Amino acid sequence: MANLTPTTSAEFIPEKWSTDIMRATESNLVLANIVHDYSGLVKDNGDTIHVPNLSNLTANDKVAGADVSFQAPTETKIDISLDTHKEASFKLEDITAIQANVDLNAEYTGKAGYALAKAIDSSLAALAASFSQTKGTYATAITTDVILDSILLLDEADVPFDDRHFVMKSSTKRDIIDITTYTSNDFVNGKPVETGKIGMLYGLNTYISENIYNSTTSNNNMMFHRDAMGLALQKAPRTKADYNVASIAWEVVTDTIYGVAEMRDDHAVLVKD
């Protein structure tokens, strides 16, 4: 006996496509907002920012009848090179845009902007590899002592208490979640008011980001003051579109020009685990 099955009647059974898109997950991007921003210096032109250092002077004993000791420190500078040009682009044919059940132009333009923001964040995260001060041990769970010893390094360098930050991987958070400080009211009450920020710990603004730079063996969590790193956005992420008649398609290009640099090495600690 012949039966009407889904196979024999396939032409009558529609397929449904949801307009609720399953977008790719995005990392918390926090670093660009918590480092020193020099962008205003290069909005018009230039390819390098020179940031001069200013040394402290020494208080000398004044000897009666003798001249004072004049001091003339030899100063240095730190350069931020505007040497990174990133782009994320796509070409959308009219037939695709017309037949799609969502606004693909808007969706992919948003994803292009995110790609550039992540590239900037990644460039800042990679600076952790150059931090000379380190605490913790690769492949070893972080402890309270590691955190306190890292803070001590900042204290001993007279780093200002304001604008101190601790950016860690979620796996590092997992290692320290049982530390009482992280479950106390002092921590819980500092609930996040921005993406990625999870509260305060020992006076540190604390963030979770999966975009932290990784070596081949470990997480390179970052504890630092805002002045430890510099970012200069010469051209913030921008989007331009042009219609290609021959292709019957919109060509959409999003790009950015920027530079990053470590500014104060004693204002940062690489916290390994």
Secondary structure elements and their pairing?
Blueprint: E1 36-37, E2 48-52, E3 77-81, E4 84-93, H1 94-99, H2 104-126, E5 134-135, H3 144-156, E6 164-168, H4 170-176, H5 180-183, H6 185-188, E7 197-201, E8 204-208, E9 220-225, E10 229-244, E11 249-262, E12 268-272
Parallel strand pairs: 1-10, 5-12, 6-8
Antiparallel strand pairs: 2-3, 4-11, 6-9, 7-8, 9-12, 10-11
Describe the structure.
By secondary structure, the chain is α/β, with parallel strands linked by helices. It has a single domain, classed as Alpha-Beta Complex (phage-related protein like fold), CATH 3.90.1690.10. It has helices spanning 94-99, 104-126, 144-156, 170-176, 180-183, 185-188; strands at residues 36-37, 48-52, 77-81, 84-93, 134-135, 164-168, 197-201, 204-208, 220-225, 229-244, 249-262, 268-272. The strands form 3 sheets. A 6-stranded mixed beta sheet has the order 5-12-9-6-8-7. A hairpin with a 2-residue loop joins strand 7 (197-201) and strand 8 (204-208).
